[in-house]
Design brief:
The protein is of the alpha/beta class. It is built from 7 helices and 8 strands; from the N terminus they run βαβαβαβαββααββα. It is elongated.
Amino acid sequence: MDKKVLILCTGNSCRSIIGEALINSHLEGVTAYSSGVAPSGRVNPNAKKVLEAHGDWNDTYYSKILDEVIDIDFDLVVTVCDHAKESCPMFPKSTPVIHVGFEDPDGKEYAAFERAYQEIKEKLLPAVQTKLKEQPMQKNVFKTDTGVKISFTGAVEKQQIVSMVQNCQTGQCECMGDATKQKIKNMQVAGKDGKVELNLTGEIQKEEIEAALAKSKVLNKPCC
């Protein structure tokens, strides 16, 4: 089954359209879509022209609102402009989101669109391939003699778990109630990127921690 990727921009008229077309033309086993957080409702003529020049244009491409694609079960969302990154919405599931930014060629001469095409091809396609090959984060919770241990594997960074612990220690954690927090006497992070362990000491139950992990904004953030 093809992987599904959404390329998200502001106007959905240049960069995201080019990215959508390039992925569909050059990445086997991947189907791309595009949309805008504030779509212009039109494809820039020069974006269409440069895609036609390289044989990548398809008449099905058009500028669309996010609501038209929000219910698709995406494997990856890529924001290609800063505004889209900052206003990235919450998707129905914890879809991985990466940012690969490009300068907007809108309003410039055709040569700028040619440069944008080449840059998007050189940077976006490898980034999408690399991210799709990553194993999704797996979380396994175990009851221990001293508390609870959580094993994180796959697409996890050690700093990500450290940040989650720091949020709990500074009172910024919203994933668990006060009663659960008071039971935790100590939190220790070990391991490295791709394989991280979090050991919690205290009279806590496995089910409490599983519920907290499901609510964690650090682990389930909509955008990166």
